[in-house]
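JOB MANIFEST
job_type = single_chain_structure
chain_count = 1
residues = 159
[input]
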Amino acid sequence: RLRRIHQLQSARWVYPAAEHSRFQHSLGTMHMAGEFSRHLYPSLKSVCPDVPSGHFIEELARLAGLLHDVGHGPFGHFFDDHFLDRYGLTHEDLGQKIITKKLARTIAALRRSPTGPFEKAAARRAPSKKRRPSTRPRSPTSSRCPGSGTEGSRDGSSF
């Protein structure tokens, strides 16, 4: 579907190089999100020791990049303002429905990223050495690390 929607809407009529689709844009965003997550994972792991495996976080970021535009209609935000608005919807609403209703089973079946398989929960929670308490003051958001039980979406679910 995204192959038929231009990323820059009608700009291609004026700027010949503005020809890419939302599909091409989403593939590039997926790639960059994966690269970014691999770069950030060591610091995330140091702050949140219970974070899921690096391969899981990489694939989570890649999926977010791939699907971030999935709810867009033709002519970008113009479609939101002049069509979806009549129904009290936005492209974010449509994207959420597409992901949760049409793609959820496929996403749930994923077991690896391009760089490796997700770790099993038991392997990730192997006994570790006791850590000395930190002398650093903790921020109010520091307990919101994945796996701490305080994270999650608005509906209370977590990844």
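[summary]
The radius of gyration is 20 Å.
The first strand starts at residue 112 and ends at 113.
exit_status = 0
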